[in-house]
């Protein structure tokens, strides 16, 4: 793991810890994202990011686009080998295994925090 990618963070909703969170902030780390993995236990944040793709991915993912305040603007589930929507107001993206956002009760309009 590079110095810009950190796994000592938590994804939090209304004071409730949802998952461990890896944060990818360099262009290299964002480009690599979840490629080459067979899954993810927690979640990954790509920042900055306005869109993502799943070309070369081994599993489907949930994607949440967040604005600069952490407000969830859009959520979608993406199968492998897809190009995601460009969300102009998005400043970061949360990626996790498909179905996780629903299990965690995340909805559009919620505010997600990194702690």
TrEMBL record:
Protein name (Swiss-Prot/TrEMBL): Unannotated protein
């Amino acid at each position: 793991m590079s110095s810009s990618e950190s796994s000592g963070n938590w994804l939090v909703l209304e004071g409730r810890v949802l998952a461990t969170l890896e944060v990818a902030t360099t262009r290299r780390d964002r480009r690599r994202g979840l490629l080459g993995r067979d899954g993810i236990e927690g979640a990954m944040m790509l920042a900055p990011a306005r869109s993502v793709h799943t070309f070369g991915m081994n599993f489907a993912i949930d994607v949440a686009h967040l604005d600069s305040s952490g407000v969830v603007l859009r959520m979608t589930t993406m199968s492998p080998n897809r190009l995601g929507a460009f969300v102009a107001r998005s400043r970061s993206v949360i990626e996790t295994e498909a179905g996780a956002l629903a299990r965690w009760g995340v909805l559009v309009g919620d505010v997600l925090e990194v702690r």
